[in-house]
Amino acid sequence: MANEITNEANDRRLDPFDRLARQFFGNYPSTFNDKVLRTDIKEREHDYVVAIDVPGIEKKDIHLNYDNDTLSISVRKDSFGDHEDKDGNLLMSERHYGRMSRSYRLPNVDSSGITAKNDNGILTITLPKRADSAASHIEIE
User: What distance, in Å, lies between the first and last C-alpha atoms of the chain?
Assistant: First the structure.
């Protein structure tokens, strides 16, 4: 019951086309949200730590770049080989494949010290801040 109330409240905030589609097809899963690289970014005193969900993505298919105060990530997931049975039938497919990319503005990073590791589908990137990026006090004459 509580879920129905929550879904009904969420439906009122949707655009009219999405609301119509939900009335016709029911609560279908969102394809946009499933294709987003879900990310957490923490800013600490001496660095930034970025955690990105990349389940099922191999290391060779993840590309990172830091340029002009911007961290960019792109990933590629090739198609799945187990989509069909021996007769070529596919009843349902909710797993996604293709390319995704995102960029994050993270200023004053010492790019030579950036590290990244992929552990159990979570890519963790540590970006140390430049020592000269600390704010300095300006005395007024």
Answer: 66
**What pLDDT, on a 0 to 100 scale, did the predictor assign at position 7?**
45
Question: Among residues 134, 57, 141, 65, which one has the least CA distance to residue 103?
Answer: 65
> Is the CB of residue 62 less than 8 Å from the CB of residue 54?
yes
Alpha carbons 87 and 84: distance in angstroms, whole number:
7
Give me the pLDDT at residue 6, please: 41
Pairing of strands 70-77, 47-53: unpaired
Mean pLDDT of 96-105: 87
Q: Is the dihedral of CA 56, 59, 63, 69 positive or negative?
A: positive
- CA–CA gap between residue 52 and residue 118 (Å, rounded): 9
Distances (CA, A) of 137 to 129, 134, 140: 19, 10, 10
AA letter at 81: G
pTM: 0.65
